[in-house]
Amino acid sequence: MSAAIPIPNPATVELPNLDEQQAELAALVTRLTPQEGIHPSAIPALTVIRANTPSVPTPSVYEPSLCIVVQGRKRAVLGDDVYYYDALNYLTVSVTLPAIGHVLEATSEKPYLCLRLELDARMIGELLLQVGRSAVPPSTDRGLYVARTSPQLLDAVLRLTRLLEQPRDAAILAPLVLREIHYRVLTGELGHRLRELCVVDSQVNRVARAIDLLRKRFTESLRIEDLAAAAHMSESSLHHRFKAVTAMSPMQFQKHLRLHEARRLMLTEGLEAAAAAHRVGYESPSQFSREYRRLFGAPPRREIETVRGGGLQPA
Questions:
Q1: Three-class SS of residue 233?
Q2: Is residue 5 part of a domain?
Q3: Distance CA 276, CA 289 (A)
Q4: What is the per-residue pLDDT across 215-235, written as a single tens digit (0 to 9) for each?
Q5: pLDDT tens digits, 23-58
Q6: What distance in Å separates the CA atoms of residue 254 and residue 261, rounded to the nearest whole number?
Q7: Are residues 190 and 126 in the same domain?
Q8: Does residue 201 or residue 264 have the better pLDDT?
Q9: What is the pTM assigned to this prediction?
């Protein structure tokens, strides 16, 4: 009678150590990014980023995502809060947020490498039905947070990145690995922050509704009562919770969205400052110029010329 073959317990199976995983992931991402910049990938939810030098602090709009630094170090600033993340820590963005990004460590020999994965709220909701919604206290944190990268999460991210070089397998396997990554984050040390997004009556979910309305109608003159109605909150509660999550008032948030869109229009469509200002809802070009300079550090024309001349990098 043949001896029974022992079946390994998944809980006791050892994963490669973090150093080995990071080294392989860095080599993969380096091959995938022969040049600096932000590179879409064959997996629609995954973007690959490379910078060969540190960047200046640059305002940008962070979308709900998981940002895993493969190599180098970066800082994000939201209001008075500063977040550092590197190859040992990942950044999670739970709602759309205007923030300031700054690559701190990068050289041509050892560039800053990052993977940005869009969070799928529907997938989070489906997973919650399976793993259950543990009771958590209402969040008072911002919509950004940093957590330690576990070997299990990094292993899943590594397998997803490998699929970029295996397009035939990616179509079938990528959705499975994406689901695993969401599961690892959801059951990780700060997963309860994501759970709040899918709980209909949570404070974060309600703020997210107001943010969604601002994103869709940022060129319009919205009233705070319109946002409060969309969020099913009182005006005072919305103002308080909105600032707690985003570090700014709803109207400041709208202003940032307008300025970022105007900057995009000038950079990608070649619009003049006055035309871009009008397109995003400004009636006064001088007011637009003042607020643009306050956010981006220079008047519109000069700042755009600097970016086109290569003086700034996307952070």
A1: coil
A2: no
A3: 11
A4: 999 999 999 999 999 999 999
A5: 999 999 999 999 999 999 999 999 999 999 999 898
A6: 11
A7: yes
A8: 264
A9: 0.84
Lateral strand order in the sheet of 144-148: 37-40, 46-51, 112-118, 65-71, 89-93, 144-148
b/e code 204-240 from CB counts within 10 Å (16+ = b): bbbbbbbbebbeeebeeebebebbbebbebeeeebbe
Q: Which two tokens stand for residue 314?
A: 């996307």
CATH of the domain at 266: 1.10.10.60
How much is the pLDDT for 84?
A: 94
Q: How far is CA 124 from the centre of its chain?
A: 16
Q: Which two tokens stand for residue 4?
A: 């029974």
Query: What's the token pair of residue 150?
Result: 């576990």
User: Looking at the domain assignment, is residue 315 inside a domain?
Assistant: no
Q: Which of 213, 229, 248 is the last residue of a domain?
A: 248
Q: Whose CA is closest to 29, among 93, 87, 84, 76?
A: 87
User: Are 75 and 187 in the same domain?
Assistant: yes
Tokens of 121: 């709220």
Q: 61-118, pLDDT tens digit by residue?
A: 999 999 999 999 999 999 889 999 998 899 999 889 999 999 999 999 999 999 999 9
CA nearest to 255, candidates 282, 275, 234? 282
